[in-house]
Give the backbone structure.
Amino acid sequence: MTPPNPASSARSCRRLPGPGSLALLALAALTGCAGEDIVFLDGGVDAADLTPPETTLTATPPALGNVAEARFEFTSDRAATFQCKVDDGAALPCTSPFTTSVGEGSHRFEVVGVSIAGVPDATPATFTWDVDLTPPDTTTARGRRRSTTAST
């Protein structure tokens, strides 16, 4: 196969034969085709797949709460899979909504969208929150009442 010549016309970059493999994407890059100009005839990987998704949190727990369970909802601006990470844990495949249980203290949630071609969002969506599970001290202090007398 002769690689397309991007200098001859923009159309040569837009019509790469399928399948839409990463090898063909590399070929396109070597011939000077910009990622957004690549379209495959067979519906394989296209330029949209090479663009990192923008991951957005759409629902989070309160920034300060007294509940150990936290629920997150998220989306991205294009087809993507997601990886979620809580605190210092490993990033694992996840779906929205994502629920986790945490202990008392400060916590951090991170979700990153990954395009169909495996391109991750460079700016994962993050949220930090605090959980206070310690009940308030409700004891009343009992002591002697001091009487005061007014002197004139």
In short: Strands lie at 55-59, 64-65, 69-76, 80-86, 92-94, 98-101, 105-115, 125-131. The chain has two domains: 10-50, 55-131. The radius of gyration is 28 Å.
